Amino acid sequence: MAYSVDLRKKAMAYRETHTQEETAKTFDVSVSAVRDWEQLQRETGSLDKKPLERKWRKIDPEKLCAYVAEHPDKYLDEIAATFECSDEAIRLALKKHKITRKKNDKIP
Hints:
The protein is mainly alpha-helical. It is built from six helices and no strands.
């Protein structure tokens, strides 16, 4: 559960004159949360939440979209060979980014 920055600031102001356990009990949070907030304040100088940083394991979506735009006629197994993964992983990545591989036949 994420606590508001306002609550964190009040807790840290209270913590200046009290122990971690007293602060945790007063604000109904865990002692580890108080400890984490203190560490966050020491490291960053603020009590704002750290932004999430996610890394792509195999398939970078920007590279995949650019590759598909350059090579629209490639099959999934050919794209998978380029990205060194399975064709199922490519299919799922394309589905996640709403890129369809269906071709429109102009033949009536």
